[in-house]
Amino acid sequence: MSAEINMLETPATPMPVRIKWVAWAEGVLQGIVAIAILFIMVLTFTDVVMRYLVSSPIKGSAEMVQFAMALLIFAAFPLVTYHEKHITVSLLHGRLHGTSGWVHRLIILAIDTATCFAIAWQLAEEGAYLGNSGMSTMVLGWYLGPLAYAMSALSAVAGMAALVLVVGHCRKAGRGAEEKSA
């Protein structure tokens, strides 16, 4: 007996209509994610080969992977947010219908938006601290401030993606009210 759990279940409400700049942003973010994954794979493979065949690992490879992982995770953050593929606990899913279901979804989307922007704000604060203190990695000496700023910017993009969902959700309600009055 096996039960399949689908963590990536499609949301109850369809995605908003494709917007040109959203499609462009998705392509850029997907490119960043793909490049980061490829970089991590090639670097790890090369490092292992160099370590065991030549006894000379790549200096700072762990730090490079850490930077690439940070970019990978935060570049995927807006994509996951826009497509609503977060891991969720749906205690009320299917129990709320009509206006209460619409309000519930609006509240969830608003909390998601606020959380993304709060993460962006905190990472910007951290970036300022790291930049002012000149903190860097131990082996390669890469400064940590720019990475924190990049993570902050990508979190802000996730916040904008969530905001697009909020606007789409509100427009859907407006169209529903227009259809009922017609």
Tags for this model:
elongated; disordered N terminus; 182 residues; mainly alpha; 0% strand; 4 helices
Describe what this molecule looks like in 3D.
The chain is mainly α. The chain has four helices and no strands. Helix content is 71%, strand content 0%. It is elongated and about 65 Å long.
What is the structural class? mainly alpha
Q: Give the strand tally.
A: 0
Global Rg: 21 Å
Portion in strands: under 5%
Extract low-pLDDT stretches: 1-16
Helix content: over 70%
Topology:
Blueprint: H1 20-54, H2 61-82, H3 98-133, H4 145-181
Helix pairs in contact: 1-2, 2-4, 3-4
Subunit structure: The complex comprises the extracytoplasmic solute receptor protein and the two transmembrane proteins.
Transmembrane segments: 21-44, 64-82, 102-123, 143-167
Membrane topology: Multi-pass membrane protein
